[in-house]
Each structure stands twice: as structure tokens, then as C-alpha cells.
Specification:
With 271 residues, the chain is of the alpha/beta class. 43% of the residues lie in helices and 22% in strands.
Length: 271
């Protein structure tokens, strides 16, 4: 009924738990980008099919899996190895696959950090389009992430969340990844600097459109690292998440600082 496509690169810490959370699926494809650890070995031992493709972008990886992965079912759930499917989400996915009114669905995620669900500082719920029909759902790359190419009126929203263990490989891994992500975000910020802000989306009902509009607006604001910290820790009530909320707000502020540094560096280089 549902195929599962999981992207991996050196995920031996995560892949077993991820696969265990989708053990109910009879078609699971792990698309690996060249792991040098036991990721592929563990995946195959768990019964998943594996394929290799050199990584270029998240969007192209997912699209390749859709087009070349010989997925058995019409509905596909897209996962990263540090994500887990709860029994409640599994039931929702199966129900939508049977009686779907939409071509794809946004899925919320609960961000886990220091054994804590970041209910406030994680800005729950945030959504990504991760579940859709194989013949309808494709992705485009934006910054370091991917976006569905489907129009918004063809996409529904689920209430049951994924669990996202973004820090499962430690703070050093998170910093290393976000160093790479900040490069992509800096380039995207420069490209988007001349775009008009969608003011209507800021007060609209589409959460993804509102988030994109807020992001476009934020590129024009001064003191972004400080503002990001205040927004997450105070505006979103991140202090209610305790020490984990404070630490996460600081990390996001640091991430914004890296984006700003790289953005200014590239701007000087092009002038």
C-alpha cells in the first residue's frame, strides 16, 4: 500500500531505528550517497532494498528514488534516517492511502533534543511535504532544503507527526551539517534579495507559504542572529523547554551568524 524512501549517508547510528519504525511497510528503499560505515549493511540486514547515487541535492535524491527506485506502491513516504514513524502516524498514512482527497500531504515533525521534545523552541508544528502519490509528488531544491512542486491546493496536511532526532549523532555533527547548510542558505539569500515579499501569505492560512514569506522578510532585517534567538527563545516561548530550549536557540542564532558571514563574503567577492 505504501512504499518508503529513505535517504542516507553514514547513518549507522540511526538507520536501524528508522527502519524498525517502518517495519510495517513491505517496500522500503534506502537510497545511499556513499556511506563508509555500516549503513548499507544494516539496511540490507533489516530487509530494505538499497541503491547508490552520489549526492547533489536533497530534491534530486528524492526525485531519483521516485523515478528509478522501482517503488512498488502508488503512495510514497519520504524519510531521513534520523526520523521515526509513530504507530499513530502509520495509521493515518494508511487511511490517507486508502481514501485520499489530495495528491500529497504535509507532515509535521517533533524535534527531539537532549531527550526533550522541543515543543516551543522547535516551533512545532513545522511541516514538510513528505507523503504523496508517486506520479504526482516531485521536489525542487530551495536553499539547503527541498520543496514540493505541486500547487498548494493539491496538498493536504496531516495532524500526526514524525519524530525527528536531529541531534542523534551529536552536536559536532549538527554543527558540521549546518556549516554546509549555511553556505546554501547564504547563496539563496543573495538570489532572493531582490524578490518581493508576499505580504498576503504572512496573514494567510497556508503554513508553508507563511513560513517562506517570513523567511524572505527576515533576509531584510538587521541583527538576524539576535532576532532569531529572541524569536525562538522569547517569541515562541522556547524558555518553557528548559535548558534544551535555551541551547537550541543559541545554536540557531549561531547558524544565522554563519549565514550572514557567508552572505557578506560572497557579496564582497562579486563586487
Amino acid at each position: 500500500m505504501i512504499s518508503v524512501l529513505i535517504l542516507t549517508l553514514n547513518e549507522e547510528v540511526n538507520i536501524a531505528d528508522c527502519l524498525d519504525s517502518v517495519a510495517w511497510a513491505d517496500d522500503v528503499l534506502v537510497l545511499d550517497s556513499g556511506s563508509t560505515d555500516r549503513t548499507v549493511e544494516i539496511a540490507e540486514a533489516k530487509g530494505a532494498r538499497t541503491m547508490h547515487r552520489e549526492f547533489d541535492t536533497f530534491a534530486q535524491q528524492r526525485n531519483f528514488g521516485l523515478e528509478e527506485g522501482n517503488l512498488a506502491h502508488d503512495w510514497v513516504l519520504h524519510l531521513d534516517a534520523d526520523e521515526r514513524v509513530t504507530p499513530e502516524l502509520r495509521a493515518t498514512l494508511r487511511e490517507k492511502a486508502r481514501h485520499a482527497a489530495m495528491r500529497a500531504y504535509r507532515v509535521p515533525s517533533k524535534l527531539m533534543f537532549q531527550d526533550t521534545w522541543l515543543k516551543y523552541s522547535g516551533m512545532y508544528p513545522t511541516y514538510q511535504v513528505r507523503f504523496g502519490r508517486k506520479d504526482a509528488l516531485t521536489f525542487t531544491q530551495v536553499g539547503h532544503g527541498q520543496r514540493s512542486a505541486l500547487p498548494a491546493d493539491r496538498i493536504g496536511t496531516l495532524e500526526e507527526p514524525l519524530l525527528h532526532y536531529a541531534f542523534s549523532k551529536g552536536i559536532a555533527d549538527w554543527v558540521e551539517r549546518h556549516n554546509r547548510y549555511s553556505t546554501d542558505e547564504a547563496e539563496h539569500a543573495l538570489e532572493a534579495s531582490g524578490d518581493a515579499i508576499d505580504w498576503a501569505a504572512l496573514v494567510g492560512t497556508d503554513p508553508q507559504a507563511r513560513r517562506r514569506a517570513l523567511k524572505a522578510l527576515s533576509y531584510r532585517l538587521p541583527f538576524r542572529p539576535l532576532l532569531r534567538f529572541l524569536y525562538v527563545y522569547v517569541g515562541c516561548l522556547g524558555f518553557l523547554d528548559g535548558r534544551a530550549g535555551f541551547d537550541y536557540a543559541v545554536l540557531l542564532s549561531f547558524y544565522e551568524y554563519m549565514i550572514g558571514l557567508k552572505r557578506r563574503e560572497r557579496k564582497r567577492g562579486s563586487s
